[in-house]
């Protein structure tokens, strides 16, 4: 079995920065990532995007190039196309690459698997043509594919960023349907002075919104009762705003309600997780430098709590330096200054978290709305199971197959916990989350049939 | 409608349900199908209702297709390649309890 | 202080299928019952197993118990007001060589000599009539044509709810820390709570050995973690639950199309932390066997895995019956990864035994005394 000092999982800004610094510090470092090229979702295909595409995606995207270049120049080994599907408690990583599975034993693991979009179950969200806002952005980044006449619906900075990028690509969306409740604007005002201490964010956000509105894109604020119509594909979005019923025909409807930490690996590793009331999500419990509750397991970047791309890159390097500090090595002065820089960057977060907290209806879908897309389990069925006495997500899963399909609860997990918590009158933290079991993603049975490790005993 | 930021570039072909799909280097199968205006990629295994691309990042498993006879492949995580035969994944395999 | 609601005629320690079933049957005989479960009902082996309702291939001592249990299974929906996902289906053990088929025939003959006819031999053509997708090299099999399968968690949960409807009190997240006899009662301390009852049933699964040892009646329970893997939904191709003769396999396609694979291979189990962990290279042979016997499995993908903590005895048969050391103490544990089908029947036997002090069931082979009789190391 191959072994290394530090295995980093995920090649977004946190993973790249962590691997780069760890290798520079002399650790035998391996970075495993499922994508064919480094960058994660935020800097997807940044090495190969040409000038025209980079212009559309903007300066924040182009910044990823330097992070990727530094990683390429480092001594860290890079395993592209490597799907990590299990990690044992003694940190043996089972991963699939090129159609075969093998193992890597790591003394330490840095989980840098980033964020996933917060699920937003609503009527019609399983129809073809309905995607996440992130999906439209990935199409632009990875393939230069631009969706024309899209309707963007939901809340959060990414909604406006994607709208602005579509405008720059010459395909302004048909409308931006914003669900941010009016009350959130008032509440966020109190956080505004602190937010201004973080460099650039608010001005950038304001410029994006102005660009979209100047392009003539219709904007609806405070939208509620959102539903998507269509027979075999999306054909229109319905909602109410300012007391009026609206209907917009569209074959591409992109949803967004912010992002939450991707918990699959940290849950598999049985790291302690806590409910973060400010970010309205679960996140692994870590110290400032990313040390989790499990020995030798670290979490860097958005996977440890949402902070954005800049914060993630800082956190990745911080985690590597903190590991070195523990070994009596590294650069304490740099570690200190990176921590301070990350704290400054985080000043914008309370404002964003208050403004873009999901509206109550986002986590409380109507009874007949599908919540688990894979197994088509409705919110009403989940509530019924709770009424019968199912005390948490794992019993609901056993009972209804919610979270048992191929996505393994990645998409529905946060809403399933929220629905159970609401019905039981407790916080999602008290309700808990799905137990995550391997394989983290489906693997072919034929691949398992070939899964040998040279020094494994024949039988035990 | 869907278009490309870069109007020109190298192309290659594969098929979806026998129809020729033009792809570019770097495209996933899901991206090339989206560019071709195809959104209906499979039937739900529960209700048989159509499904398509949702997350584009390997999380949701809604874009499962059959590639060269092998089912359950994620179209968004599989690079398009010349000559692949891609098919809609037909579901509806639920068997009524006797 | 033990409040009135912490007193009962019977305390059951362990909220698995056996604890829940015995509690229900005791309640049906008029007893008041408290069940103490350190986690949640069905959390371990009872909630996470392959769901086989199998008489096929049982240890001869278990056959009468298994037969009685099967009668309850056939009426489970009416009994529990929940169908438990139970369906009658053949259980078939396939023979991959003529030699294996001869072994199966010998077993069939022995069972017939004992008066049991539920296991039947299938020839090459008959096995294909039941398993059209089976590989060419399979030469025959042994079958119980009216065995079946059920949903484990749903079943255990249904036993719990039926028992609750008859007044059984379940205390989940309540770990029995200490047990002692005081006056005529068993006194159970569970953290800050105290429970008491004249009778006590140890149905604590992998944890039952600790309890038995604390009562000076040690039994060598090993914690094991049987591993199961589940595929994505496949087109329907198999109605039976299938095993192999010469190598471990448990194979079942569920009505929803998923295939559940297990059989013999074990992960890591730790009773102290409730932790069970998959060790995938151990499953290589299971995967190979499944593909060998059903070539269609080559295209299957594995979506999920389970392993639950289960108690195993050195002789692979459970401990069932009264204590050999204390009056009014009973045991039902150590089902060694094949206790699910026995749940309804053994619960009935225990309910009768505890309520009346006697049973006609042939429990002698399962006595805990078989371990105390053994020479001490």
Automatic annotation (TrEMBL), chain A:
List the SUPFAM superfamilies hit by this protein, alphabetically.
FAD/NAD(P)-binding domain (SSF51905)
Q: Where is the FAD/NAD(P)-binding domain?
A: 5-312
Q: Which controlled-vocabulary keywords does the entry list?
A: Oxidoreductase
Give any Pfam family that matches: Fer2_BFD
In terms of InterPro entries, this protein maps to: BFD-like_2Fe2S-bd_dom, BFD-like_2Fe2S-bd_dom_sf, FAD/NAD-bd_sf, FAD/NAD-binding_dom, Metab_Enz_Cyan_OpOx_G3PDH, Opine_Oxase_asu/HCN_bsu
Q: Which residues form the BFD-like [2Fe-2S]-binding domain?
A: 370-422
Question: One MF term from GO for this chain?
Answer: oxidoreductase activity
Protein name stated in the entry: FAD-dependent oxidoreductase
Q: Which organism is it from?
A: Roseovarius spongiae
UniProtKB/TrEMBL annotation, chain B:
Where is the chain membrane-spanning? none
Indicate yes or no for the key word Nuclease.
Answer: no
- List, alphabetically, the Pfam families matched: Fer2_4 (PF13510)
SUPFAM superfamilies on file: 2Fe-2S ferredoxin-like
Question: Listed GO molecular functions?
Answer: iron-sulfur cluster binding; oxidoreductase activity
The record's section on InterPro entries has:
2Fe-2S-bd_N (IPR042204), 2Fe-2S_ferredoxin-like_sf (IPR036010)
The record's keywords, sorted A to Z, are: Oxidoreductase
Instruction: Write the protein's name.
Output: (2Fe-2S)-binding protein
Query: Which organism does this sequence originate in?
Result: Roseovarius spongiae
UniProtKB/TrEMBL annotation, chain C:
Entry annotated with the keyword Signal: no
Question: Which keywords are on file for this protein?
Answer: Oxidoreductase
Query: Which InterPro entries does this one have?
Result: FAD-dep_OxRdtase, FAD/NAD-bd_sf
Domain annotation FAD dependent oxidoreductase: ranges: 9-352
Which Gene Ontology terms cover its molecular function? oxidoreductase activity
Sorted alphabetically, the Gene Ontology cellular component annotations on this record are: cytoplasm
Q: Which Pfam families match?
A: DAO
Query: Organism's domain of life?
Result: Bacteria
Q: Which PANTHER family match?
A: SARCOSINE DEHYDROGENASE-RELATED
Protein name stated in the entry:
FAD-binding oxidoreductase
User: What organism is the protein native to?
Assistant: Roseovarius spongiae
């Amino acid at each position: 079995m191959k072994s290394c000092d530090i295995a980093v999982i995920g090649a977004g800004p946190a993973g790249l920065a962590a691997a780069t610094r760890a290798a520079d510090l002399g650790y035998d470092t391996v970075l495993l990532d499922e994508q064919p090229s480094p960058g994660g979702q935020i800097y997807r295909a940044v090495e190969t995007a040409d000038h025209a595409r980079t212009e559309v995606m903007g300066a924040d995207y182009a910044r990823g190039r330097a992070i990727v270049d530094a990683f390429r120049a480092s001594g860290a080994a890079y395993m592209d196309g490597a799907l990590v599907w299990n990690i044992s408690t003694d940190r043996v990583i089972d991963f699939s690459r090129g159609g075969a599975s093998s193992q890597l034993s790591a003394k330490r693991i840095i989980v840098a698997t980033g964020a996933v979009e917060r699920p937003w179950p609503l009527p019609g969200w399983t129809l073809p043509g309905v995607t996440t806002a992130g999906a439209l952005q990935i199409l632009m980044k990875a393939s230069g594919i631009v969706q024309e006449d899209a309707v963007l619906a939901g809340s959060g900075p990414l909604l406006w960023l994607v709208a602005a990028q579509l405008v720059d690509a010459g395909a302004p969306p048909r409308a931006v349907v914003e669900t941010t409740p009016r009350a959130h604007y008032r509440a966020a005002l109190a956080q505004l002075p602190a937010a201004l201490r973080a460099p650039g964010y608010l001005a950038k956000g304001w410029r994006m919104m102005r660009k979209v509105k100047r392009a003539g894109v219709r904007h609806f604020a405070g939208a509620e009762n959102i539903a998507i119509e269509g027979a075999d594909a999306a054909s229109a979005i319905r909602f109410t705003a300012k007391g009026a019923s609206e209907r917009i025909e569209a074959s591409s409807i992109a949803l967004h309600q912010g992002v939450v930490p991707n918990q699959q690996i940290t849950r598999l590793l049985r790291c302690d997780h806590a409910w973060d009331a400010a970010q309205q999500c679960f996140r692994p419990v870590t110290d400032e430098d990313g040390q989790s509750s499990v020995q030798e397991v670290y979490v860097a970047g958005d996977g440890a709590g949402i902070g954005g791309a800049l914060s993630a890159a800082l956190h990745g390097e911080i985690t590597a330096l903190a590991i070195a500090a523990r070994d009596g090595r590294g650069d304490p002065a740099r570690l200190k200054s990176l921590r301070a820089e990350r704290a400054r960057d985080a000043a914008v977060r309370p404002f964003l978290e208050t403004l873009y907290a999901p509206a109550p209806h986002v986590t409380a879908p109507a009874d007949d709305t599908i919540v688990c897309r894979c197994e088509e389990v409705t919110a009403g069925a989940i509530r019924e199971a709770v009424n019968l006495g199912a005390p948490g997500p794992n019993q609901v899963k056993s009972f209804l197959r919610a979270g048992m399909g191929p996505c393994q609860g990645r998409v529905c997990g946060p809403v399933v916990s929220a629905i159970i918590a609401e019905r039981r009158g407790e916080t999602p933290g008290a309700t808990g989350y799905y137990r995550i079991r391997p394989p983290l993603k489906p693997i072919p049975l034929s691949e398992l049939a070939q899964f040998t490790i040279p020094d494994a005993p024949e039988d035990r | 409608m869907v278009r490309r930021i870069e109007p020109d570039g190298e192309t290659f072909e594969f098929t979806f349900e026998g129809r020729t799909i033009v792809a570019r280097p770097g495209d996933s199968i899901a991206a090339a199908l989206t560019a071709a205006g195809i959104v209906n990629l499979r039937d739900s295994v529960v209700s048989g209702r159509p499904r398509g691309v949702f997350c584009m990042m390997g999380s949701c498993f809604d874009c499962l297709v059959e590639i060269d006879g092998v089912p359950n492949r994620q179209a968004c995580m599989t690079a398009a390649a010349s000559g692949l035969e891609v098919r809609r994944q037909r579901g509806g395999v639920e068997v009524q309890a006797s | 202080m033990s409040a009135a609601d912490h007193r009962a005629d019977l305390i059951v320690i362990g909220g698995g299928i056996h604890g829940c079933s015995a509690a229900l049957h005791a309640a049906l005989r008029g007893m008041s019952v408290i069940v103490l479960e350190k986690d949640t009902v069905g959390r371990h082996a009872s909630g996470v197993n392959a769901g086989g309702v199998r008489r096929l291939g049982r240890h001869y001592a278990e056959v009468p118990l298994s037969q009685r249990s099967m009668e309850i299974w056939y009426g489970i929906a009416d009994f529990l007001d929940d169908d438990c996902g139970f369906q009658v289906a053949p259980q078939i053990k396939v023979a991959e060589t003529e030699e294996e088929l001869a072994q199966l025939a010998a077993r069939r003959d022995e069972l017939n000599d004992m008066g049991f006819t539920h296991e039947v031999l299938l020839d090459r053509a008959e096995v294909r009539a039941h398993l059209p997708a089976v590989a060419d090299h399979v030469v025959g099999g042994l079958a119980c044509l009216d065995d079946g399968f059920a949903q484990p968690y749903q079943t255990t949960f249904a036993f719990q709810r039926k028992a609750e409807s008859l007044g059984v009190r379940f205390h989940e997240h309540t770990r029995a820390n200490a047990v002692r006899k005081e006056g005529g009662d068993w006194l159970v301390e569970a953290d800050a709570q105290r429970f008491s009852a004249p009778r006590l049933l140890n149905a604590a699964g992998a944890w039952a050995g600790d309890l038995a040892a604390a009562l000076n009646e040690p039994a060598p329970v090993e914690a094991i973690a049987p591993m199961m893997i589940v595929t994505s939904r496949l087109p329907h191709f198999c109605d039976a639950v299938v095993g192999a003769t010469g190598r471990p396999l448990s194979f079942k396609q569920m009505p929803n199309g998923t295939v559940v694979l297990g059989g013999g291979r074990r992960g890591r189990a730790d009773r102290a932390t409730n932790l069970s962990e998959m060790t995938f290279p151990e499953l290589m042979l299971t995967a190979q066997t499944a593909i060998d016997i059903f070539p269609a499995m080559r295209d299957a993908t594995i979506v999920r895995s389970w392993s639950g903590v289960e108690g195993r005895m050195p002789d692979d048969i459970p401990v069932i019956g009264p204590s050999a050391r204390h009056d009014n103490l009973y045991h039902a544990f150590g089902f060694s990864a094949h206790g699910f089908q026995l749940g309804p029947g053994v619960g009935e036997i225990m309910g009768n035994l505890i309520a009346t002090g006697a049973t006609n069931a042939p429990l002698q082979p399962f006595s805990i005394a078989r371990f105390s009789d053994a020479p001490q190391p």
